[in-house]
Amino acid sequence: MKMTMRWFGEENDQVSLQDIKQIPGVEGVVWSLYDVPVGEEWPLEKIKKVQEQAGSYGLNIDVVESVNVHEDIKLGLPKRDYYIDNYIKTIEKLAQVGVKVICYNFMPVFDWTRTNLFEEMEDGSTALFFKNEKLQDIDPMELVNTISKNSAYTMPGWEPERLKHLADLFEQYKDVTEEDLWENLRYFLEKVIPVAKQHDIKMGIHPDDPPWSVFGLPRIITSKEKLERFLNLVDDPYNGLTLCSGSLGANPDNDVADMVRTFADRIHFAHIRNVKTYENGDFIETSHRTEDGSVDINGIVKAYHDIGFTGYARPDHGRHIWGEECRPGYGLYDRGLGVMYLWGLWDAFERTKGKVNA
Ligand code: DNO
Ligand code: MN
């Protein structure tokens, strides 16, 4: 397991490369170019700049999260070929600096969705929260406004210029079914995977978060069966997964440890975090520790250890603790604790490997 940490860039993140370097066992940053509009080709100079910045702290830039997919591709509109061409050119550029994995998602309109970014927990920390009932009767625009008001940062997937066109986007998705989305995903993969393969870059789709439809929009990367269907769209090791335990774990029917064992060699990137789920469909993002939430993090790390996972991993969202002012879900402290919890489990499994009764 190669440990990484997400970093939003020098101008965009209160967490510094120095901070990241000081977390034990972190080898690289998971990055993106946030100022390039979705669908445009990434400029090589900007890519190289990140490489230099991270490199000066001895951190690699092997994993990109995300190269986002333009809505026209998801919608299957005529201009999709133009955007796919740009995507391919970006892959070629990323290959030049040695990128190994590209994480992306295929969620219509929204990336991850929560109803409160700073829900108070009993211990005085705050965390990302999803109130199921609230989402049933809220206008998406209202949620977008609340979310942007409560955050000093622009969050990937919630860029104001994109969301300005929200009404148009909803109109365009009006008649798009799940089956249409599958077909549009296949079209994209059939063009992109051969290029990624040629450049030895593994593609890892991130599951939908939460793993069910929101605001009536179709969502397809939600369960074990759907992941299986996805992998068969283009049955090639370069067409793989970013297996996110927290996104999938928001649905208690999803057994993530079982998915790790089933899809082993198709998992290129592991997002590991916990969530506490409630019967009414609400969930809150707790600390990474198994006992604190509903997801069996211990069992998941054991599964990764058992399959001899050599891919990349990162802690995912953390709580906001110790008074830290940070990007929602992406503070330094709780994610740092997350890294150490994951290493603690991993090292213990390593020590007992092959021993009877371990
Ligand atoms: C949620 C996060 C996501 C992720 C994107 C990837 O679990 O990891 O925000 O970054 O969906 O495209
Ligand atoms: Mn994730």
TrEMBL record:
Catalytic reaction annotation: D-mannonate = 2-dehydro-3-deoxy-D-gluconate + H2O
Annotated pathway: Carbohydrate metabolism; pentose and glucuronate interconversion
Cofactor(s) in the UniProt record: Fe(2+); Mn(2+)
Superkingdom of the organism of origin: Bacteria
Keyword match Cell division: no
Molecular-function GO terms, alphabetical: mannonate dehydratase activity
Gene3D superfamilies membership: Divalent-metal-dependent TIM barrel enzymes
Purpose: Catalyzes the dehydration of D-mannonate.
Protein name (Swiss-Prot/TrEMBL): Mannonate dehydratase
InterPro entries for this protein: Man_deHydtase, Xyl_isomerase-like_sf
Enzyme Commission number(s) of this protein: 4.2.1.8
Gene: uxuA
Stated family: Belongs to the mannonate dehydratase family.
A Pfam family: UxuA
Keywords: Iron, Lyase, Manganese
